[in-house]
Amino acid sequence: MKNKIAFAPLLMPVVPLAGAEAFKFDTSYQTYDESGGRMFVESYYYRGEMFFSEDTSFRFQFLRDAIAGATAWGALPGGTQPFLVELEDVRNGVLAALSQQIGDHRVELELSHSRESDYLSQGLSLSDKWELNQKNTTLSFGLNFLNDTIRVIGTDDQNKKSYDLFFGFSQVLDRDTLLSANLTLGYAEGYLNDQYKVIQRDELRNIPGVGSIPVSAVYRENRPSSRVRGVFQLQGTRFIDKAHAALDAVVRLSQDDYGVFSQSFQIEWRQGLFEKFEITPFFRYYQQTAADFFHQSLNEVNIGTPQQFPTGSGPNYSADYRLSSLATLSLGVKARWRFSENMALSLAYENYDMSGVGGDQAPAEAYVTAAMWTFGLNLTF
Q1: How many helices (H) and strands (E) does the chain have?
Q2: Which of 12, 140, 240, 335 is in the most buried spot, having the most CB atoms within 10 Å?
Q3: Which of 323, 334, 335, 340 is nearest to 379 (CA)?
Q4: Residue 311 gets which letter from DSSP?
Q5: Which residues contact 123 (CB under 8 A, 6 or more apart)?
Q6: Whole-number Cα distances in Å, 379 to 50, 72, 274
Q7: Do the Cβ atoms of 216 and 78 come closer than 8 Å?
């Protein structure tokens, strides 16, 4: 029993004693580095949670992402148009949430704000966790709302609104087993294009005094102006006392009216070592079908002259490789060392590989391989 008590704080989040005031803080630094000199992202996170009483808490998060590098923007490789374009930006975000226990319910109101040079996002979320059956059963539900403003060069700023309704169920099956299920239903409307993504079309253009010459023209993508999606997630956790470990598995299915069906599976093995150390190898596989309107080029689409600033009306088309039929594989390991009662260090590495699958792939050069490192510090007062 002594080893189990020492190991428990490593597997579970640190929480204050009933009725005690406490403050938790953690900061982390993360790098995302795509091979071949593609995108490089540096991220800084600062999170905190204050417990004013047994029933009331406040949490916050500040983040800063610095993005630089090159990305596939939709043109075909080997042509006169560049296949990669340079991108550089900084995102700053803040999140604040107030949580209150009311009987068996834990109600939380969350506000968020994020800004980039060409993108402003403001969010509101209201959720409730209802504990039943001596806290062995938890029901959760809530609503998220996002109001985004996008700066599109050459025209007025565009707007996008997103709504998510979610339901959750968590059940303690026995002293070592926890099962949870979540369903999210989402709807988005407005400007759903990526303002930097294009699609190529080979054309003949008449040049006075020269005649018709072949050119590779690019046009802005045109996604539908609304999107409906559903996401179902099932998660199970099993604590294994004799091994001082926990096995965690997650299955996730998603479908939207773009025609994208995705499925993912993740498994983690959290292993406690030497009472204060935890190491977690993990594996994640993700696969999706292509959007109905994904095309490598407009040569495949029967259309006249594309709109300069598409509005979402048909026909729709996009060459964004993220909407193609693809699969990703992530392998990694996380380590955590709690070297005192109030302080812990963490380190994580993940190798991420994306490739095309099926018949609606983007050019192979579009897919990325990346390495991610995360360093973290956790404090409790």
Answers
A1: 1, 18
A2: 140
A3: 340
A4: -
A5: 110, 111, 112, 113, 114, 144, 145, 146, 147
A6: 12, 40, 20
A7: no
As for how many domains the chain has, the answer is 1
Q: Bridge-partner residues for 114, per DSSP?
A: 93, 121
Q: Which two tokens stand for residue 227?
A: 């999107």
180 DSSP β-pair partners: 170, 235
pLDDT tens, 301-345? 988 889 999 999 889 999 999 999 999 999 999 999 998 989 999
Query: Which residues span the domain enclosing 169?
Result: 2-380
CATH of the domain at 261: 2.40.160.40
191 neighbors 156 (Cβ within 8 angstroms): no
* pTM for this prediction: 0.90
Q: How far apart are CA 317 and CA 291, in angstroms?
A: 9
Q: What is the largest CA-CA distance in the chain?
A: 90
**Residue 247 clears pLDDT 70, i.e. is over it:** yes
Q: Given its phi and psi angles, is residue 53 left (phi above 0), alpha (psi -120 to 50 degrees) or beta?
A: beta
- Measured distance CA(74)–CA(224) in Å, rounded: 17
Task: State phi, psi for 203 to the nearest 5 degrees.
Answer: -135, 160
d(CA 122, CA 160): 11
Binning pLDDT at 50, 70 and 90, where does residue 18 land?
A: very low
Q: Summarize pLDDT for 30-50 with one digit per residue, the tens.
A: 999 999 989 999 999 999 999
* Beta-carbon-side half-sphere exposure of residue 257 (alpha carbons within 13 Å): 12
Phi/psi region, residue 311 (left: phi>0; alpha: psi -120 to 50; beta: rest), is alpha
Query: Could you please report the per-residue DSSP string of 58-87?
Result: EEEEEEEEEEEEEEE-SPPTTSSS-SEEEE
Q: pLDDT tens digits, residue range 357-375?
A: 988 999 999 999 999 999 9
Q: By the 8 A CB rule, do 284 and 248 touch?
A: no
CA separation for the pair 372, 369 (Å, rounded): 10
